[in-house]
Amino acid sequence: MDLRSLRYAVTLAEELHFGRAARRHFISEQPFGKRIRHLEEEIGVRVFERTSRRVALTPAGALLIADARRLLASVDDLSARAARASGHPVFRLGVLGFGAAGLWESMRSQFTADHPELAIEYSELDFTTQHSMLQDGVVDAAITGALKPVRGVTYDLLFESPLAVLVPAGSRLAHRDYLSQAEAAEHDLLRLDGMGDDETLAGSFGERILAAPRIANPASVPMAVATTGRLAFHSILARTFYAHPGVAVIPTAGTVAIVLATRTGDERPPVVSIRKAARAARIAAASRD
């Protein structure tokens, strides 16, 4: 039994719908359901009753979920308590890809001025863990992308980055100044884990994307494009942070929000400070623009 499976079960108990519960953890319904089934097999108890119309907790499931909530609440603060006990307190920051880009130095300076006693511990996130590591209490805050609201997570906007399409350098599209999303969707695409649920992706890019190779790490996208000959969507900042001689970065419509994510209701002083630093950095950058 692992903590993530317990978190999935708690979420399903709240939503009573596999699709909605899976979307809250940025995974598709099939692997989410597999985790729930494995949990039930492991503990030897049916936690949920399923029919074609509804999902409901069993009496035994209701007891398990109550115990799981208490356990997870205790685990969420375990790492912080251990750090304090060791005498080497840390602030655990999860970072997806290029993180806060040009805003980070200002954020770090203000945060360390407020909390010189804390060392910042870096944890690499990918598209599949960008929210779950925060929700699971593995990190204290995360710099990530925000596709849609996530229950229990508060976002502070850092900046909005224009979207781009990554195209193999040998493609006839590589010299374009602009490529619409509709035109890009006519070509074979890579699927970035966390882009959205199956229904949303199929509606935007067609059914083919559901069978496309999945990429979990933002830094791996250009190499995957160069290797497979497929197209992929990314931030325009891929030009700066992930430049690849075999890939052209073509602007397209839309933006992606880069945010500081923290757990809703977490008012510990270091978390309040990192939020304050994020807001100050955003305001300073806006005044320069």
Automatic annotation (TrEMBL):
UniProt keyword terms in alphabetical order: DNA-binding, Transcription, Transcription regulation
Ranges for domain HTH lysR-type: 1-58
Pfam families: HTH_1, LysR_substrate
Organism per entry: Embleya hyalina
GO molecular function: DNA binding; DNA-binding transcription factor activity
Cellular component GO terms held in the UniProt record: protein-DNA complex
PROSITE patterns: HTH_LYSR
Database matches in InterPro entries: LysR_HTH_N, LysR_subst-bd, WH-like_DNA-bd_sf, WH_DNA-bd_sf
Highest taxon, organism lineage: Bacteria
Similarity comment: Belongs to the LysR transcriptional regulatory family.
Protein name: LysR family transcriptional regulator
